Amino acid sequence: MSVLGLASQVLEIFAALALAPLLAGWVGQCRAWLQNRSGPGLLQPYRVLHKLFNKDSVLATHASPLFRTAPYVIFGCMTLACGIVPTLSTDLPLSPAADAIALVGLFALARVFAALAAMDVGTAFGSLGARREMLIGFLAEPALLMVFFTAALISDSTSLTTIVRTLSAREIGIQPSLALAAVALVMVALAENARVPVDNPATHLELTMVHEALILEYSGRHLALLEWAAALKLFAYACIGIALFAPWGVAHGQAPAALVFALPVLVAKLAAAGFLLALLETVSAKMRIFRVPEFLGMAFLLAVIAMLVKILLGAGPQ
Amino acid sequence: MTGLTQQLIDLFAALLLLLAFAMLAQRRILSLIHLYTLQGAVLVAAAAVMGYATRQPHLYVSAGVTLALKVFLIPSLLHRVINRLNVRWDLEMLINVPTTLIAGIVLVIFAFYLAAPIAGLAASIARGTLGIALACILLSFMMMITRSKAVPQVIGFLAMENGLFFAATAATYGMPMVVELGIALDVLVGILILGVFMFQIREQFDSLDIRHLEKLKDD
Amino acid sequence: MSSAPQLVAVLALCAIWLAIGVAGLAALHRFHLVARVLFPAGGAVALAIVAAALPSVWGAPQSVVLPLGLPGLPFHFRLDGLSALFLLVLGGTSAGVSLFSAGYFRQSEGTAPGLLCLQYHVFLAAMALVLLADDAYAFMVMWETMALASFFLVISNHRIAEIRRAGYLYLLIAHIGALGILLCFGVLQANTGDYSFANMRAQHLSPFWASAAFLLALAGFGAKAGLVPLHVWLPEAHPAAPSPVSALMSGVMLKTAVYGFLRVAYDLLPVQFWWWGVLVLALGLASAVFGVVFAAVQSDMKRLLAWSSIENIGLIFAGIGLSILFAAYKMPAVAALALTAALYHVASHAFFKSLLFVATGAVLHATSQRSLGKLGGLLRVMPWVGWASLLGVLASAGLPPLGGFVSEWLLLQSFLFTPGLPNSFLNMLVPAVAAVIALVAALAGYTMVKFYGVIFLGQHREEKLAAARDAGSWERLGMAWLVAGCVVLGLFPAQFLDILAPVTQLLVGASLADASGGSNWLLVPVSVERASYGPLFFFAGVAASFGLAYFLVRRLYHGRLRRAAPWDCGFPWLTARMQDSAEGFGQPVRQIFEPLYRMRRELPTAFDARPRYAVEVGDHFWHWLYLPLARLVESAARAIGALQQGRIAIYLLYSFATLMALLLWVTR
After folding, report:
1. Between A210 and B210, residue with greater pLDDT
2. What per-residue confidence (pLDDT) applies to B71?
3. Which of A53, C56, C417, C508 is 20 to 30 A from C457 in CA distance terms?
4. Residue C591 contacts B where some CB pair is shorter than 8 Å
5. A119 — phi, psi (to 5°)?
6. Given this model, what pLDDT does residue A234 score?
């Protein structure tokens, strides 16, 4: 474990914590531009977080300690998730602790806690949100795992750093299996981050919401942590997409210069990803909740086919 | 014959498979036609790349014919048909979508398994794609089985022909020109006949639901 | 005998278990003696078994011959790595369950406590002896003793007709399974007449007979383990038993079937064929999918857990099938990986399922409710049970950093090696299989959220739940032990792999210990570049950011808190009954996997004066396999019933005619 490795690990986690709200703000701003609105500005999420942290937390009368613990657990999970996806460097001391499968497990852990906390208060909307979140989860989780498996088959490893190293060492080209996996990942990411075809982050219409129903009872600092965790999750998914499908520019070796160079590259790639997300959200309409299983089933199948295509076509020319 | 063209062919094959699955899951006729058009466009691109990679000019010709026929002529005919029949939206499935998709993946595995030994024999640069072509054919066939309306069935038939075309291009650098033109003409005549057929069903039963055809059986 | 110290010690401990049982019988109605002395003593014996069996995991096999049973047919016992591993699981789990039982059993429920104590300890001793048996005779005697003891435990509340019916079904299928095992041993001894396992190992069966033995073993042990389609007894029998017994049955008894299957497939049969692996994999997957899909829609908490046991057994068998597949293609390292995954799941399932079953027992005693629709909000009134089961639920859902995740991780890792198989069909099939495993794992999470959320979270669905009392100190002790098992298995996988390594070495000739690269804190199946998982770092990472976030938020902002009524969405008449019910939570799964169920629904219309909603989920296997079979048997019985006349003379005539026919046949 080198000093530089430690430094890049710390830098990566702090970059994630700092940039995640910015990414959320950027997506919101792009959406506003695309919809001919002026938008609240890039820094709005920070203002919201600050405001929420300053407010009192209001707890339902019979909320259990689980309800108060869950935001911290979820926040911790998402921070760790951002720490193990190699975005700036592949020399990360934390990366042997968790590979791609463990990353999926980490998301699942956060989801289970969110659902349990939502059921804790015992209102109709909380449990409705929990049920829908778990429904989306149990379809999206295997799909995400299969996306990782496609990459793992190509690079003969489930370790995220090895995957990124192998993929970025290839010449620029398009692998059909990766293309299919990319489509699947986009679908999963839309569903997991409560984005438009599946859920609307801006909605407050009770019957259609999923993510908002989950956190309906939260306020003050707990809500702030959850909002921050949601931004981190979006950040992590964007980084997964970048790591799997556009891994160029990530620092590999021990050179500090590469690390310095990697940060602006990452920001540029995130900006592009955020714009794409906003574009996708603008051109698509929200679907009924009953259609979501089909949507995610399709993502799951695509990911499986990506694996099959990988096996059929072989590794292809490297 | 570089790595890039190989990758492009593989990518087009994967896209075809993706489109075949999308058609299987699609509920709207209009989107179905769009997907079919897209499939045609991918075929054109695949044939052109193959022609470039193998220096076989006749592949360019077949790409051109495909472009005219499958990207422009047939889709526009289909659009006219659904406009005239006024069946733009409704689409009924005999089996629900998730089940269809799961059956679809079983078909893909089956097709890949069948194609694996053949792929070992063929020398073409796109030998790996034979399994995908076969899978497309089987998926389109299944789409025909699972739909109860006439128009999607016709589209399924056309998509199946697309799969055959791709198989031919991939495995043997395309069929002889005569055969190819013959098939193209055949498809065109086929769609005309099916069009007439659809209007006839519609006049007879006031619906395009082909389950009505069961009534024609003598008891 | 001195050459086998551990084996003798374990046998002696089993004898103590039996003695405790007999003592219970002697003190039939002295409740306090039975509960406070005998059950904890049983738990201590279980711990002693763990201590005795642990060294023999690494040691050479030991064997003894006891001149018990019939003359000329002594019992052979043998203790090798495989037996020792399962003894560890048995001892470790039953120690916690026995401690829990000390506080659980009540005086006035069903069977007298002393009798229950006898049955319970005979059950434990029989399971331990099954694991030690080294000849078919001893094995079958212990196997049947185990089945009978558990049957009596299942029907301990025998005044309820449903429980009697469940017990009968259990006994029936257990017997069919035992028949399969007996026939399997018959094939394995290859007409030598020597039923010791040593002789069976020495036989070289033809592929046909080897396959026959394998299939018989699969049917026999599969019936005991609850593999589809022989699973129907499990969701009936496990919920019917008292909760600690359900815990033992799900946690340990199912594992004896896994043990028997491994013993036959790897030890007694010299070679494996690839299609065996495919068959086991397919049955395992079918069980896993079926189990979890049905678990998700149950509305009785113990039935839910029973179905979830079917799912977990399915995952274990999927791992075994995969390892047979690799072993048949001479890929021992990967076979060891898959087998390790299966064995790891054996251990972690034993702990978390026992924990969840005893927790339902505590809930049952506090509320006398089994139906999920009448529970809710118990975390606030039963914090011990609630927090302990939270850990059990997380382990059961396969979430890091607990035990269930490690086995799942290993299993998925082993699937990633399948493209190396020399069979193109399997290459194509196996990724799809991995996808199914991933789906099952995700659905298990769904099911467990439903289980926990509906029982422990939310508001009380019934008024009287507010008066529920938390578990007593014995029960807490037992649950704490089981929780510790889940946590240790989750956080220290590398250490547990040291125990598994000699076992996989014994069975497939390779182990993961060679590859782990000397790191004690990382789980590394092949190499660090390929994959690694470090639950301690993982846990530390989450905990550190948890702690830092907590500290910084308090430091930079404040910790002010207000309590208020929950937001009612402008509808002030919210009641506890408006929370999602168990049926409601299962609805999406019911809809998506509709073809797998046999559903009967009663939906109210908008104009019903007394609207009623009812849904009943049935099992296709029951309706398409068992009922026709039952009808067939019934009609056959009716046909034979024509012979029944009721007059003695006619019966004598039958006997006489049979005698004549036999004489004729023998003398000719």
Report:
1. A210
2. 87
3. A53
4. no
5. -80, -15
6. 95
Predicted local confidence at residue B210, as pLDDT: 65
Residues contacting residue C523 through CB under 8 Å, at least 6 positions apart: C406, C409, C410, C493, C494, C497, C516, C532, C533, C534, C535
Chain A within 8 Å of C614 (Cβ-Cβ)?
no
Considering CB atoms only, which of B99, B105, B116 is closest to C432? Answer: B105
The pLDDT of residue B92 is above 70: no
Closest in A183, A305, A314 to B108, CB measured: A305
| Pairing between β-strand C62-66 and β-strand A57-60 as defined by DSSP bridges | unpaired
Residue A76 binned pLDDT confidence (cut-offs 50, 70, 90): very high
What is the amino acid identity at position C170? Y
Full 3-state SS string of chain A: CCHHHHHHHHHHHHHHHHHHHHHHHHHHHHHHHHCCCCCCCCCHHHHHHHHHHHCCEEEECCCCHHHHHHHHHHHHHHHHHHHHCCCCECCCCCHHHCCHHHHHHHHHHHHHHHHHHHHHCCCHHHHHHHHHHHHHHHHHHHHHHHHHHHHHHHHCCCCHHHHHHHHHHCCCCCCHHHHHHHHHHHHHHHHHCCCCCCCCCCCCCHHHCCHHHHCCCCCHHHHHHHHHHHHHHHHHHHHHHHHHHCCCCCECCCCHHHHHHHHHHHHHHHHHHHHHHHHHHHHCCCCCHHHHHHHHHHHHHHHHHHHHHHHHHCCCCC
Determine contact, residues A99/C534, Cβ cutoff 8 Å.
no
How far apart CA A131 and CA C580 sit, in angstroms, is 8
Lowest mean pLDDT across B161-165, C109-113, C377-381, C633-637: C109-113
Contact A60 C563 (CB under 8 A): yes
Cα three-residue angle B15-B17-B21, rounded to 5 degrees: 115
C661 inside 8 A of chain B by CB:
no
With a CB cutoff of 8 Å and minimum separation 6, the contacts of C306 are C234, C235, C238, C239, C246, C250
Q: Is B52 on the interface with C (CB under 8 A)?
A: no
Q: Respond yes or no on whether the N-terminal peptide bond of residue C401 is cis (omega within 30° of 0).
A: yes
pLDDT tops 80 at residue A247: yes
Backbone angles phi, psi at B12, to 5 degrees: -60, -40
pTM attached to this predicted model = 0.91
Q: What percent of chain B has pLDDT over 70?
A: 74
> Mind listing the pLDDT tens digit for each residue in C619-645?
888 888 888 988 999 999 888 887 777
Q: What is the mean pLDDT of residues C611-624?
A: 85
d(CA B138, CA B140): 5
Which residue do the tokens 């919401």 mark? A209
Q: Which residues contact C27 (CB under 8 A, 6 or more apart)?
A: C33, C34, C38, C114
ipTM greater than 0.90: yes
CA nearest to A130, candidates C293, C381, C579: C579
What would the pLDDT profile of C83-102 be if each residue is shown by its tens digit?
999 999 999 999 999 999 99
Closest CA to A312 of B166, C419, B1, C413: C419
Closest of C442, C617, C451, C472 to residue C103, by C-alpha: C472
